[in-house]
Amino acid sequence: QGHLVESGGGLVQPGGSLRLSCAATRSFFSVDTMGWYRQAPGKERELVATIDNGGSTNYADSVKGRFTISRGNAENTVYLQMNSLQPEDTAIYYCNLEIYRGPGYWGKGTLVTVSS
Predict the structure, then answer these.
(1) Which of 60, 77, 80, 97 could form a disulfide with 20 if both were Cys (CB 3.0 to 4.6 A apart)?
(2) CB burial of residue 17 (10 Å; 0-12, 13-18, 19+)
(3) Which of 67, 73, 2 lies closest to 35, judged by CA?
(4) Contact residues for 34 (Cβ-Cβ < 8 A; gap 6+)
């Protein structure tokens, strides 16, 4: 707990954009992937997007063409650019870091609300 810190959530109107950021507060070794997941009220946590060490990305079908995941220049930072946001994108967004053949780590989440 507390090893990943998310920021950038907030209230946005439909069609708007937000950029989420995630930074590790300690050093990690053998990081395999970093990614974003989300959990809407009454629903299970679901994958949004991941990026591996080689830069390969994976997106949920529901966000393809609208969201872009990228890694920052600082070690173990990751961003999620979210465009054309819709009410169904409303959720708590969690940052995830996976160690190669090791444990995964989660941030505490940042709330994104899409509403007019």
Answers:
(1) 80
(2) exposed
(3) 67
(4) 22, 50, 51, 71, 76, 78, 95, 96, 97, 98
What is Dmax (Cα atoms) for the chain? 43
CA dist., res. 91 & res. 110, Å (int): 8
Strand partners, 36: 49, 95
Q: How many residues does the chain have?
A: 116
What tens-digit pLDDT sequence spans the chain (116 residues)?
569 999 999 999 999 999 999 999 988 888 889 999 999 999 999 999 999 989 999 999 999 999 999 998 888 999 999 999 999 999 999 999 999 998 999 999 999 999 99
The strand ranges marked E within 1-116 are 4-7, 10-12, 18-24, 31-39, 46-52, 57-59, 67-71, 77-82, 91-99, 104-106, 110-114
**Torsion angles phi and psi, residue 99, rounded to 5:** -85, 140
